[in-house]
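Record pair follows.
FIRST:
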Amino acid sequence: MKASQTAALQAITPSGGARAITPLADPPDVLPDLIAHLVPDGHPIARDAALAVLRRHLGRIHSRVQQAFEARELSGLSAARWMAALTDTLIVAIHSYADATLPATRTREVPFCLVATGGYGRGVLAPFSDIDLLFLTDAPMSPRGQRHVEFMLYLLWDLGLKVGHATRSVTDCLEDAKGDATILTALLDARPLAGDGAVFNLFAAAFAKARADWGFGHFLSAKRAERAARHARYGESPFLVEPHVKEGRGGLRDLQTLYWLSRYAFGVQRMPELVGADAPGGGLITEEEAKAIRRAWDFLWTVRFHLHLVAGRAEERLTFDFQPVVGARMGYTRHGKQDGVERFMKHLFLTVRDVARLTRMLEPGIERAALGLPAVLPASDRALSDAGFALADGKLIAAPGFDFREKPVLMLRLVKLARDRGLEIHPLAFRALIRQSRHAVKLRGDPEANAIFLDLLSGRDGAAWLRQLNEAGFLSRFLPDWARIVGLMQFDTYHVFTVDEHTVEAIGVLGQLDRNELSEIAPVASELLGQLQSRRALYVATLLHDIAKGRGGDHSELGAQVAQEVCPRLGLTPEETETVSWLVLHHLLISQTAFKRDIEDPKTILDIAEVVQSPERLRLLLVLTVADMRAVGPKVWNGWKATLLRELYWRVAEVLAGGLSVPERDVRVARAKEAAASLLKGRPKPELERFLSLGYPGYWLSFDPQTHARHAMMVREADTSGTPLTIRTRVLEARSVTEVTVYCTDHPGLFSKIAGALAVAGASIVDARIHTMTDGTALDTFWVQDASGAAFDQPHRLARLSVLIEQSLSGRLKLAEEIRKVRREPARLRAVTVPPRVVIDNHASNTHTVIEVNGRDRPGLLHDMTAAISAQGMQIASAHITTYGVRAVDVFYVKDVFGLKIENERKLAQLREALAESLMTPESQPAPVPARA
């Protein structure tokens, strides 16, 4: 057995609590056997027969490696090495078969070497990785050599392999590598497979000399630029909930970059060669760090290997549908209150964080060892030098004699000085920050450390400094509760980041509001932040608002308790502590009310006012809500949600200020009619009196006077023309919605049919107001968005929407059939489960029964739910539609046929059962029982 294969079979213990790997018995050396089949007695078999032999052999390679890997006899890295070693047998056998098959020529042959490059050259292959080959010569390839290359490539392609290939002379290699960092990198991993070894030795010597002549600086710059472009494409954050295992930040490519830099600078083959004072570079990494690199390599390779096998292709992105499968295959199961998939993903995120940290730690060491140590200059002013800092390359670094281990508060002073002076932290200083972050435990409760930390948190660019402290590992040591949310993900499609990264993003949004950068997007919150008396408490509340996630139970309640303990340790006053705890407890109050309740209902406003009680707390709560929502992900915030939050804020603010935003119902209705009449001045009196008599009180309290005036014109046009159906659309760009108003004769199921038509049109309903008028007509208003969260604004789409509503109401549109044709969600999202839930509340409103329905969103869901409500004889007064990723949370205000709340328990039970059935997907509903003949 080859030494490379033996090394590939070293047993390790898999992560996540899985059982230990059983060492694999030595596999048979299949190379002689394969060549014997292809060239028996020196005579090559026919090509078709050879292809069949090679296919069987390739199948055995994949089957054997997969079997051993899935039996946990191999880790991912060991499997990748064995896959590459066994692939060598295939490639070398094809080379030998080609050489035996092609007839000799009389002309002088130009020797060439068959070389593996790229990942294959490093001796690692995933199941569906490309195989990169270089046909290396020292002179122009001879005609027979060219036929040899073509013969091999066609065989490999016929086997279904993805082959990257090049034919180059040694001189070509050097010229191409000098001008292309990608080629240079691939050649760093070059490994001879077959052919003339002397040619490869000549290349290796020339390539080593060329690298020395070119110097390290240009290669370092090229790899940094490549990495920056890669991160920009696949995610700057290592904490995206659907990470790219290979190319994302903290992924395999970042680890490979460290290897390439080390290989280029020092000629090492393995990272552990950098350990020890006598190692190249003077001991750039510790034994512990070398083990961390090995663990990360192995873990990420194991994930990648599983991902390829599960996907059946070269899939590198760990999407939602693959996460539970890969996690289960790696042995992650439910532990306490945390699902197996969440445990698996947390381990992955902690690993990619380690990779990002190792990059920040090792790369500057490689740079300085290769290019020389920086000149450490005394600080230009006495204050900086007295604080224990100096400048190197114009960046901040600890002065000689100042050690983070002996005085940990220097770590926070370093960050604060960098911020205050507008300086960058030197990479070597950040390296020290990472290595000594464990000493941050000594700073807990330290007054100076608390003061600096709170100043960093609430000061300029707080998110940037917080992210650096988190990446260095300092934050988890300084705040032990923070360590529990690092790398913690929620297995849903709503949150884009892990909990810790989401929190840092929220702090960043506060900074944007503070700098007035969001004045057009969130004008009220931007204005309010400058008026706050409890600014420091707001920043700490934002830091702690999700601190109790992953503990089971209500994270708001648990987080409020954590805040009571953490805030005094951070040096906050009792008053600030109480404010922070209250904000954490109620940080979802504003958003849940705005998106789930009827803010036109006076009780909704009074209920919030009773909880908030003070204008300052209301201001704090609104700003925290905006920061929290915008930090969830780019698609969560839109103009419609911003409008709802603003309207809710102003209504509650008026109540807290003692205003008359909630006077007696009759007085408010009278005022609304007066305002509408003033806008309709000049209309015939009978026409005006008819319109003013049409609406019930709920209608007059649901719209502004301008909308009432538009409705009056719709009613007049319908009366004049005798049209049974009138539809009007209006694009509200500021709110990112399109308003659709339907006026027609009321009948059971009207809402459901309109909702179905809108679903077929590709419109998502975000809010709705349903009004039956005194003459039996219906005036229903829907606010809709397209799939991207924007308003319907194209004329042809608006026209189609109106046509579909008309066809649905006339019965000419087969809703069920058309809804099934609507595009379904991507397969990767189907793995996210949403337990159905129906909650009926008779206390949230004085006049309506409030129904909250939670379920998996799908085209036509609202149609199905409203049809179920109508079938129970209920009237829908308003609907509030919210989606959180694939979760739909829809709230309906309903009455019975007599206009009263539904309080009969039997009817409520039937309603609950009907709604639960409507939440089932068509695929999950039981097939109808055939009628008996």
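SECOND:
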Amino acid sequence: MNVEKLDAWWRAANYVSVGQIYLRDNPLLRTPLRREDVKERLLGHWGTTPGLNFIYAHLNRVIAERQQEMLFITGPGHGGPANVANAWLEGTYSEIYSAITPNEAGLKELFKQFSYPGGIPSHAAPETPGSINEGGELGYSLAHAYGAVFDNPQLIAACVIGDGEAETGPLAASWHSNSFLDAKNDGAVLPILHLNGYKIANPTVLSRIPEAQLEQLMRGYGYDPHFVTVADPRATDQAHRDFASALDACVNRIGEIQAAAREEQRQTEEHPAWPMIVLRSPKGWTGPEIVDGDQVEGTWRAHQVPLSGIHDDDAHLRQLEEWMRSYKPGELFTDEGLLDEAIAEQAPAGDLRMSATPYANGGRLLEDLRLPAYADHAVVVDRPGQEKASPMATAGGYLRELITLNPENFRLFGPDETASNRLQDVYEVTDKVWQQRIDDVDEHLARSGRVMEVLSEHLCQGWLEGYLLTGRHGVFNCYEAFVHIVDSMFNQHAKWLKVHQDLPWRQPVASLNYMLSSHVWQQDHNGFSHQDPGFIDHVVNKKADVIRVYLPPDANTMLAVTEHCLQTRDRVNVIVTGKQPTMTWLGPEEARLHFERGIGVWDFAGRETEGEEPDAVLGCAGDVPTGEVIAAAKLLKEALPLLKVRVVNVVDLMRLQDSSEHPHGLPARSFDTLFTRDRPVIFAYHGYPWLIHRLTYRRTNHSNIHVRGYKEEGTTTTPFDMAMMNQIDRYQLAMDVIDRVPSLRSTQAEIRQHFQDERQRAWQYTRDNGKDIDAVTGWLLEESSPDDAS
């Protein structure tokens, strides 16, 4: 190990990092620094950056010496200057962004673009080569790191965890990820807990607890911590030697653990203590020690921009120049502004560079899934509405074969709910990964498997994101009400994909697929706390190019939706459907056609006269609302045989938007053809009703659209009682039609009263008997044939 060369790389990275925060010109300080050389707006985070640069330099040494494939994940993502600086020093940045050349002119552009209008963000972002971890929010780095190494046995993910980030719930849970890491078939994660003492304004918990307690904490999580403490910020040679020694010990230990597992010696060490590093270094290390008489280095004052008064204070300007010259840029760069050859040669070659690794651009590694035959898993339908099947169980059979066909690049993630959500068929071909003790009573636990279950939605989401962004495929299944826990994580991933799509050098990755069940309308034994369909509302706020929402009404449509979503790229697909057996309305081919349209008239359910407009339209989206709409249409057929009612089912929710708003949106003319321009529309929707109004507010007939949906009425009750509590039941929908068709309002009071009485009887029956009436549970759509379905 050459300490001088390591230190030179570190100084170069620090210099380039400081330049990004401050400079717009004079990048190599060829002349004395002037105010005109400094940006008007000073944005960025210096405090964590020198520590990140220090770690990066040492990881490069290990990679070059051992030819080790490594992915660098920065939990302190707002330390973006470090990621960009090292990518430029390695040459990757200039290869991707040709205008940012590897010389003085390119360095000037690199500096100017940082946190600058039309430039790049201040944190690690999709624009940053080598990054898969969005720096806009903290807490997810360690989960991403583990997701990245699952099924990548040759990869080490070096994950730097900031001590502020270590206080978040998702990160605290992420330490448990080693209980799911298979040393035989997976890669390894090297956590580097970077303790620099402070967050924005406060000390951090892990930096202040006694070291013995911190060691016990890490050992309790199952890690073997190696402590490196920078006692003297100026004794950098010693810091390099100490960290290099710890890093070599950790990488050696990883190799030993993996060798033992891969030589079938598991019995000697079933759950090893994986190594990790705790690095204590001053916040803002190597930066200004004192500013305006206040201690800065090693304190919270170094968090963002240590010298912020440059445009008004000559002393600050002089101090900035002294700071930058302390890195001795004349020793680091040639007269042309090229990185000195002796320093540059420390970088690994080609794809071994952490800024160029294909694992950080997963589309380069992505292989298409081998898909099961759709017809082999579809439900046979002789007549609509005669047989029941669970959409989720049907999907479970499909996923079972999918796992068989794709044993190394597909995983199913969920918070202890795979079987509860009726996907348990997958256990016929795989197990749940588990590295801790396995007792005789346990079922489907094994050291390796395709199912990842942990009671943390944060971990499931983080693992899956890391898995997808490094070039694999997966599904996250969850209870609908509790997927809200990852609202913020979804935000970050959706924003990542939005930017990712605009970068030609980033290759498309597999979509993030949510499969949500145990939904608001039908559950086994859960009540009000488990009844919240609002994740859809949250999702549709994001960029239309990224978001898709599907509400398959039956098992065959669920199958068609699942098949499609698994083939998409750069999307977030949200699928919401029931796990309980529900009516199957469409045969396999009809279901596929209906899904491809996304929306359509169901002739078998309504009654229309050819060439005439309907008197009313019954719309529906969601499995339970669809069943209630079809039952309402049947009630109306029987009671009012001359009434013309059209039934329109929506499986692709975004079809309701205008085509100018969403790629899947219906053109105005098509929407008017389905829903008419002036007839009453009663729409039964799975979620909160106002979302339908939001999606259709531009439509010609919006003023005539009346939406029924979930309105925060719920408890532990029967499915039909839930429908009645929220007024999406068949009787209420039938009454809504009578109330809104002008010719019926005052002429059909007796029929309306009959529906109202039947509704009251059904309500009372649930109170008296604790179950739904037979007329509901045994209901069948008796007439018509499958040929009528369209």
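COMMENT: The chain has three domains: 3-355, 374-582, 603-788.
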